[in-house]
Amino acid sequence: MTASFVLLSDETLAAPAASMTATVDTAYRMFRVTFFGIKDGTPGYGIIRLNSDAGNNYIYQRISADNTTVAGVRGSANAALRPMSAFDIAANGTQMWTCDIEKPLATTPARATSSGSIFGDLATDAICYESATNEWANTADLIDEITVLASAGDFAIGSRMLVEGVEP
What is the pTM of this model? Predict the structure, then answer.
């Protein structure tokens, strides 16, 4: 029998909020987080914390494209996964991404891949693309909580986070 994703959480904001959280069963070892963020009047981007870990335990590497400019960067000792962070969501702008997270054993780091799009400048409707890989260095716990946070300000009404999972 082939395992397939099941919906674990579906949250749409009815009021502005700085974060959206899904509590998940540790029986799940692979997750897909789909996020559609609408920013308030403060530019920023969405980040992911696992198990409320705000320590510098995350590493990322990304490729971003804005018009014809392509750039890559690597960052270590971060306080969250960064599925898309090369470009801020403009004030009152939108960001859309999907992040696949795998942590098959408590003793291994979590690995994540993500891709998505963002309107980098609402005045010119310049759409930007980004693809990233991330690692959560925790080698003691399985994932039991996934939180998407705004890097600044809040997400506006209508922002939505879906979390799906697959059991091993």
Answer: 0.92
Using CA atoms, how far apart are residues 6 and 4, in angstroms rounded to an integer? 6
Q: For residue 121, what are the β-bridge partners?
A: 126
- Residue 58's Cβ-side half-sphere holds a number of Cα atoms within 13 Å equal to 22
Give CA separation, 142 vs 10, 19, 27, 58, in Å: 21, 21, 9, 15
In contact, 57 and 80? CB cutoff 8 Å: no
Over residues 81-91, the pLDDT tens digits come to: 999 876 778 88
Which domains, ranges and CATH numbers included, belong to the chain?
11-166 (2.60.120)
Name the DSSP letter for residue 105: S
| Contact in structure between 83 and 31 (CB atoms under 8 Å) | no
